[in-house]
Amino acid sequence: MGELFTKLRRIPGMLLRGVNICYEKARGLDFSGIIQPEMEGHCAYEASRGMAAYIMLRAYLCSRVSNNDAIIDIGCGKGRMICFFAKFAFKKTDGLEYSPELAGIAERNLRRLGINGAEVIRGDASEFEDIDGYNYFYMFNPFGEAIMKQFVLHLKESISRTPRKIRVIYRNPVLHPYLLYEGFKVEEDLRRTLKANKIYNFLWRNMPTIIAYTH
Ligand SMILES: C[S@@+](CC[C@H](N)C(=O)[O-])C[C@H]1O[C@@H](n2cnc3c(N)ncnc32)[C@H](O)[C@@H]1O
Predict the structure, then answer these.
(1) Which SS3 state, helix, strand or coil, does residue 145 take?
(2) How far is the CA of 42 from the centre of ligand 1 (A)?
(3) Is the minimum distance from the CB of 73 to ligand 1 under 6 angstroms?
(4) pLDDT tens digits for 92-151?
(5) Residue of 31, 34, 40, 45 to test ligand 1 pocket, by largest number of atoms within 8 Å of CB
(6) pTM above 0.85, yes or no
(7) Domain limits, the chain
(8) What fold is seen in the domain 31-214?
(9) Residue 193: how many other CB atoms lie within 10 Å
(10) Helix (H, G, I), strand (E, B) or coil at 206
(11) Whose CA is closest to 69, among 87, 86, 92, 95?
(12) Distance in Å, CA 161 to ligand 1 centroid
């Protein structure tokens, strides 16, 4: 009985995913799929998805973002989140992606959606230092600790060079303890936004973990 209930609970998510894939196909977009990494230490491509995640992010960003802010998706894959962030007041919504193939697909998706001005930078996060112009960083568990260490090092150097408050929004934050160790403070656990909503808890029991940090 419990197993049947668990299976039934997955149906709304599966239906939504199906609708989403049809919508993408109809518009000539491509955000779907899971693509294994070409190099060790890099995580597979999988787009941020799930209505619960978008609702949490919207609630968090709407009350904070102004046109003085700029965001970059570190490991942007096919650009799904660049398109999402472009709906907010950010003056800049860019992405960094090490896979040239994924970066090319991201650019095509942006063009098809008429999102101009967003840049897909090709490069590895461990070597990326051109970050002074951003104060928001989004990551969906893009890589392991070795690359994160290098990235955090560049982030801290950037803060010393150009002092500002930065925010890191980290989905599936497997390196949470490391960020705390490096002096990042939890600003908000975005799951709290949905805590009171019984319908979302029912439909998305495995709610994604998204944590916003400040430094
Ligand atoms: C889980 S996917 C997330 C995609 C996108 N951020 C989203 O939320 O829809 C992680 C992405 O990070 C990219 N990535 C992994 N290691 C990277 C690195 N060192 N530098 C830049 N991108 C990287 C992968 O190619 C993949 O596209």
Answers:
(1) helix
(2) 7
(3) yes
(4) 999 999 999 999 999 999 999 999 989 999 999 999 999 999 999 999 999 999 999 999
(5) 45
(6) yes
(7) 31-214
(8) Rossmann fold (3.40.50)
(9) 18
(10) coil
(11) 92
(12) 26
Spatial separation of the C-alpha atoms in residues 9 and 30, rounded to whole Å: 27
47 lines ligand 1 (CB under 6 A): yes
Residue with tokens 């149906």: 11
Using CA atoms, how far residue 127 sits from 46, 159, 203, in Å, is 22, 16, 40
Phi-psi region of 71 (alpha: psi -120 to 50; beta: other; left: phi over 0): beta
Tens digits of per-residue pLDDT, 172-186? 999 999 999 999 999
* Token representation of residue 210: 């998204």
- Under a CB-based contact definition with an 8 Å cutoff, are residues 68 and 207 in contact? no
102 CB near ligand 1 (under 6 Å) = yes
CA distances from 67 to 120, 176, 178, 181 (A): 20, 29, 31, 31
What's the one-letter identity of residue 14?
Answer: M
The residue whose C-alpha atom lies closest to atom 26 belonging to ligand 1 is 45
Q: Find out whether the beta carbon of 84 lies less than 6 Å from any atom of ligand 1.
A: no
Residue minimizing CA distance to atom 16 of ligand 1: 42
Q: How far is the CA of 44 from the centre of ligand 1 (A)?
A: 7
Strands 210-214 and 185-189: antiparallel
